Amino acid sequence: MNIIIRHIKFTLYIIMCTAANIYGGSFLSVPGSLSELLLIFGISSVISGKSKIWGYLANAFMCIIFSVQCLILFFSGEFLSPLMIENAGMADNLGDNITTYSILTAAVVAVSFLPFRITEGISSTKAYKLVVSISAMVYCATLFTGILANGHAVSPIASLSETSFKMARKRVFPLNYRNADRKDIMEFFHRDSISTGFRDCSTLAKMPNIIVIFTEGLSAEVLDSYNNLGLNLTPNIESLRSESLSFENYFNHTAATFRGIRGQLYSGYQYRGGYGSHSNKGFAEIDHNSIRDKTEVEINSITDILEGNGYNTCFINPEPEHSATVNYIKTLGFNNVFPSEGNRKLSDKEAFSELERCIASSREPYFVGFYNIGTHHGFDSPDEKFGNGKNPILNRWKNYDTQFGKWFRRMKDKGVFENTLLIFTTDHASYNSPEWKSTFKSSQDSFIARIPLLIYGAGIKPGCIDASGRNSLDLAPTLLDILGLDKTPNWFLGSSLFSKPETIYDRFCAIGDDFFRITDNHAISIRHKYRNIISEIKKYYLISLNE
Predict the structure, then answer these.
(1) Residues near 298 by Cβ (< 8 Å), separated by ≥ 6?
(2) Distance of alpha carbon 333 from the chain centroid
(3) pLDDT tens digits along 302-358
(4) DSSP-assigned letter for residue 343
């Protein structure tokens, strides 16, 4: 019976490991993970030969790490990452999935405490030693191959070690540049104007109102015209697209929300994720006045520039006043930030109603930012459902499209867009979980992907422009180019999408210590190439208040 139990544990781990890697990872990670599993049991057997209790504890400890990592991989498509840790304080944004994750975590941890030795005395046999030796060689080979091919470790414990190293490096990051002169860095990135290329149109409203919709987590592949699945999931967004100036092959420059919205408003990169990971110095944990106090020369945002030109600025956020996201939005310089009332998040239906009320009461000209939460990874829709309602991913996008369409038609009927520009985009690409990739038959393999950028209203002629892999660093300078506000000092890294040539930065993407380059309309992870550009990005981190 005891032998059977020991076999059950090992068998369960093989099944769990294989399923997690195939469904959530890649075939390349299977040999790395399996060889790591064999090493866990091999090392545990060696220790057990000297002390059964220490062997058992070592096995249980390593199995806990291994199994939890496999579980994370299964649901998210990657092992535990710095981005996940940075957003740990936002776990409630996972919706109902948090209960499922908790139960399954408890279950796999419980399995880790089963006896581990398969047979008595096996650790002393030549065959066993040979298997362990081969496993060690396979393990080393897959680690090396994975780092070369994917830029990161491809097994559970090795990946956790890599993530731990990255998180430790974040704490000492400023020390790497302690002798850097911030004023010299400020001067290096300073610009007296932005690039231009927009051809003015006689029908373009003078000082038009501006509404920017930062849809939570919207990759272009969600849209019907991109995925070609015949779902009829986003007819209202597609209708807007047909009436707008749209940009194809346009990418997000970073992720997730804390980096994404600020990065687009400032046309810059941001090192810290924003919440709870660096001794209370995340962007959600400091106010705008503190930001001003910390800077010798403040870099500016499109919000600052528009306010200086007479615009009333405000932001609609669907989360409660005390939430980390609202705290973060208050660091972005808007005159007013409108959170939800009470202690609950607004549905997308409610959020669009708040946007409508804000527009009706705002002094013109206004610049209104809008962010929703209903399309966040892990959520389901409380309102509209797709088909039989069994797929929460399709539900939330069906609902969002419906609520957006209703709001858009109401605004259109009121004549709002006669003197208003609507910018429809996202904070970042969709999180490429296995479930999301399966739903949209997507090959998206990173948090950097094509995203929509639609500009509508106030005299904008419909059309399509190929952005050719340029990214969301270009949002702010593009909008200022349209408005004719190009003669303004700035520290923008991007350039107007109407101008050529672009900057050296707007095909490079950065998520903390992870860097990507857009080539052939695809995001490629880079580690050992482009050292000069990566060094410049890290210097920019210092003046974007990430020290």
Answers:
(1) 291, 292
(2) 22
(3) 999 999 999 999 999 999 988 878 888 888 889 999 999 888 999 999 999 999 999
(4) T
DSSP label at residue 11: H
Residue type, 431: Y
Within 10 Å of residue 388's Cβ, how many Cβ atoms? Answer: 8
Residue whose entry in the numeric block shows the structure tokens 């019907």: 224
Distance between CA 132 and CA 138 in Å, rounded? 10
Residue 277 CA to residue 151 CA, distance in Å, equals: 23
**What residues are paired with 336 via a beta bridge?**
314
Residues with Cβ < 8 Å from 364, sequence gap 6 or more? 209, 312, 419
Domains in the chain: ranges and CATH: 2-173 (no CATH), 190-543 (3.40.720.10)
Tokens representing 133 are 């030796």
Pseudo-torsion of CA 98, 99, 103, 109, nearest 10°? 20
Query: What HEC string does 262-304 produce?
Result: HHHHHCCCCCCCCCCCCCCCCHHHCCHHHHHHHCCCCCCCHHH
Most confident of 30-44, 101-115, 162-176, 401-415: 401-415
Q: What angle do CA 496, 499, 503 make, to 5 degrees?
A: 70
